[in-house]
Amino acid sequence: MVAYIQLQFSQRLSETWVRIDEGLLGQSEGLFHQPFTALQAAARLEEAGVGSESRLVLADLGKELVAALNQAGVGEALRVAVNQARAAQSTVLLQIRFDEGAVALASLPWELLHDGRRHLLAAGAVDMTRYITYGESTTSLSVQAPLQVLHLGASPKDLPALDIELSVSALKGIPGLVVSTLTPPTYDALLERLEAEPKPHIVHFDGHGLVEGGTSSICLQTADGRCDPVDADALQNVLYGRIALVVLNACQTSAVDTSMATVFGAMAPALIQTGIPAVVGMQFPIADRSAIRFTEAFYGAIARGETLTRAMSAARRWLYREGTWHIPTLYLRTNDPEGVLLRPADNRATGKDTHDLKKDIETLREEVKALRELLSTHRRNLQYLRQHAAIYGAGAVPLHLINQIHHEEQAIEKIEGELAQKEG
User: Fold this and answer.
1) Does residue 20 have a pLDDT over 70?
2) Measured distance CA(316)–CA(217) in Å, rounded
3) Terminus-to-terminus CA distance in the chain, angstroms?
4) Which residues is 144 bridged to in the sheet?
């Protein structure tokens, strides 16, 4: 049995708080002090290069993250959960939850968590997903076999060449996948393909990712084969509510730049906002060889019926010796924290049977639970802000504090309205 725990990060004024829920030691909360920035982490990795020195830096960064959780008073629950799961020959499923404004926190390489003895994700002791908390309901993930995969590969002539054919061959060599390719790899061709049948369950992108000036984009191609940068906003409009899983097998497609206003400025989180329940992206540049190995291991696992979290763990094992296992991230926002993608085929007559109705009820319960958790977070934030405002006295409260209180009040009103609809 998988142990499931949550780490919820929240911004309150200039402070960051972290709360652990459903840990074996119950619920606890503390003030979180960020041990380093994403830029500092990248600089340390670049200086270390590759090989044993790089492995030491990866371990140090992971240890510093765990030390910061310990300092906040929430690390012990994670440690106990890992030990209990180890004794039971099981795994801890860790969901790290960010408010949409927690840009600096989401930019950190949480996949590096290290308990002093091992990298928790690389060892398979912990499966981790990233979850963004905001006032919209979660969406359903699972689909029926066979898995329809749309491969979108672009190697523009004005950027370094990529071996797109090798990636396509890797995908087509995996039993259980029905792979189609987008030719030419243009934005207009993508629009046309998504209107055609059969509808893809998965969109897989191989190519170049860019983060410039606080904007995240992927490079499709123009009619003459040059880079056509498609930003997160444009891609959202194309894919809204259409796809179960998007895999962005390209550099920096899940990188959150601290200049962004919210985490939705980054490509992978932006697609979560469209209602796509699962998005895999790369938080650092990734070599072609590692990208191919990730494709083979990840899709091989899900074709066998593994959950997305287990498939990510399988892929990390294949990437470990290359030192790139920490680069892939999984954003998951669905009522199923493990990410069950494939469901058994149902050959019975169409129409809702008892099993379907039970699933609908369970889905509704999970949505209500998620909204209640979000409501609780906003109410705590509001209470904290009001207490802080009381220090200034009437007529002297700073404008930014008044605006934050108003924002929390509006969020609470919106969530309460959604809850009333779902529970009515």
Assistant:
1) yes
2) 25
3) 34
4) 343
Between CA 38 and CA 20 the distance in angstroms is: 23
> Is pLDDT of 321 > 80?
yes
Q: 330 burial class (0-12, 13-18, 19+ CB within 10 angstroms)?
A: buried
| Distance (Å, whole) CA 52 – CA 2 | 33
Measured CA to CA in angstroms, residue 178 lies from 146, 319, 411 at distances of 7, 25, 42
Contact 272, 284 (CB under 8 A): no
Sequence-distant (≥ 6) Cβ neighbours of residue 123 within 8 angstroms: none
Please say whether the beta carbons of 285 and 42 come within 8 A: no
- As a whole-number percent, the residues of the chain with pLDDT over 70 amount to 92
Distance between CA atoms of residues 312 and 330, nearest Å: 8
pLDDT of 124 > 90? The answer is: yes
The whole-chain average pLDDT of the chain stands at 87
Distance CA 105, CA 99 (A): 9
pLDDT tens for each residue of 237-292: 888 878 999 999 999 999 999 999 999 999 999 999 999 999 999 999 999 999 99
CA distance 277 to 101: 20
Outline where DSSP puts E strands in 344-423. Answer: none
